[in-house]
Each structure stands twice: as structure tokens, then as C-alpha cells.
Design goal:
This protein has 207 residues and is of the alpha/beta class. The chain has a single domain, classed as Uracil-DNA glycosylase-like domain (Uracil-DNA Glycosylase, subunit E). Strands 1-3-2-6-8-7 form a 6-stranded mixed sheet, sandwiched between helices. The longest helix is centred in the C-terminal third of the chain and has 21 residues. The radius of gyration is 16 Å and the shape is globular. Bound molecules: uracil (URA) and iron/sulfur cluster (SF4). Uracil binds next to α3.
């Protein structure tokens, strides 16, 4: 079975807790096979800010919660400095299972394919419908592909609000992991923070 998609695993009862429960059993693509568990979104169900990352990493896969590892700490720093409370947001990923290759004992992150992003999108779409945030913060190219389409370029279009519906916007920025890998991390962080501040300003003005 390859990439039949998550749609058939969605529950009839539409609430975040029903979705989360159903997502535990998703076999919509092959990624469920090697991962420890589904890492569903978490946070305030009526959040003004919904953040979308790529996929769980090693620590998220072990703990079952999104953005708890190094990228999560970078994200928390940015949110704090932009004046967005981590407790007041909903945080999720475009793909809900960790994709990796084994190198010895280490699990090395691999980018999800377009087909895997598409297979997983029904979960993200359902989360978006239920939380219906004023601002959706799109973290990196994978989340951008899921929400803004394959022609969106984060490098060129980051930090510019994209309308989602009346009074609600997307704001794309780089992925916090890209800051950790950047040749000049403080410069990369400054750009990330500027984008988060744009999102913060929109969220306090709209929705
Ligand atoms: N990177 C992501 O995109 N999401 C996580 O949850 C952790 C790391
Ligand atoms: Fe289902 Fe998404 Fe996991 Fe694939 S990655 S099995 S579509 S939850």
C-alpha cells in the first residue's frame, strides 16, 4: 500500500480530539511503518495563531508532541521575542510521521516527498478548519507546499501576508531548523523574528 492518502482514516465526528485519536491509526502512506507514533497537532483549539512545521523529528517521534526538540527551542525563542505566547498557539506539522534513514544507531531526518505531503494533507486541512486561526505561520518549504502550493517560494515570498479568507492570513517564514544549520545563524534568526513579528502584528489586528 503506497500513499492511498489519509482521507479514509478521518473520523465522522469532527473534533480535534476525535481527529487526534483517529490519526493514531493512519496508514495513508508508508511513513507509519517505521515511525514510533503519529505526532498530531497540539495546543489551544481556538488559537489566533496556528503554526505548521514539516514533520516530527527524532525527539517528537519519541515523545509524541510537536516541536519539543532543538527546532522547538528555536521556535519558542522566536515566539517569545515576537510576543506570541507558546501556550496560546496551536502547533502542528504538514506530515504527521517521522521520516528517517538509519545510520548506525542514529536516525537521520529525510525530507517528505510531495506524494507524502499530499497523502497527509487531510489531517492538516481538518485542523485548519477546526482551529480557523487569524494567522497561519508557515514554517519552511514543506508546510508551504502543503498550504500555499508547489509554486510558492519561501525565500522570495516569506514575511508577506497571503490572504486565506476574509480577516485571516498565512505568513511564511524559514523553518527553525534552517537557522540551526545556517552559516550565519544570528542573521537567519533575525529574518525569522522579523517574519514572526509581522505575524504577531496581524494576529493582534485581525481575526
Ligand atoms: N521540525 C518540524 O518541522 N516539526 C517538528 O515538530 C519538529 C521539528
Ligand atoms: Fe498517515 Fe500522514 Fe502518517 Fe502518512 S504521514 S501514515 S498520511 S499520518
Amino acid at each position: 500500500m503506497t500513499n492511498i492518502g489519509a482521507e479514509r482514516f478521518l473520523p465522522a465526528e469532527v473534533s480535534l480530539s476525535a481527529l487526534r485519536e483517529a490519526a493514531r491509526g493512519c496508514e495513508g502512506c508508508e511513513l507509519f511503518r517505521n515511525a514510533t507514533q503519529t505526532v498530531f497537532g497540539e495546543g489551544d483549539p481556538s488559537a489566533r495563531y496556528l503554526l505548521v512545521g514539516e514533520q516530527p523529528g527524532d525527539q517528537e517521534d519519541r515523545t509524541g508532541a510537536p516541536f519539543v526538540g532543538p527546532a522547538g527551542r528555536m521556535l519558542d525563542r522566536g515566539l517569545g521575542e515576537a510576543g506570541i505566547e507558546r501556550g496560546a498557539v496551536y502547533v502542528t506539522n504538514a506530515v504527521k510521521h517521522f521520516k528517517f534513514v538509519l545510520r548506525g544507531k542514529r536516525r537521520i531526518h529525510q525530507k517528505p516527498t510531495a506524494a507524502e505531503i499530499d497523502a497527509c494533507r487531510p489531517w492538516l486541512d481538518a485542523e485548519m478548519r477546526l482551529v480557523d486561526p487569524a494567522v497561519t505561520i508557515v514554517l519552511g518549504a514543506t508546510a508551504a507546499r502543503a498550504l500555499l502550493g508547489p509554486s510558492f517560494r519561501v525565500t522570495r515570498q516569506r514575511g508577506v501576508p497571503v490572504p486565506r479568507r476574509e480577516g485571516a492570513f498565512y505568513v511564511a517564514t524559514i523553518h527553525p531548523s534552517a537557522i540551526l544549520r545556517a552559516p550565519e545563524p544570528e542573521d537567519a534568526y533575525a529574518g525569522f523574528l522579523a517574519d514572526l513579528r509581522t505575524a504577531a502584528a496581524l494576529g493582534s489586528a485581525t481575526g
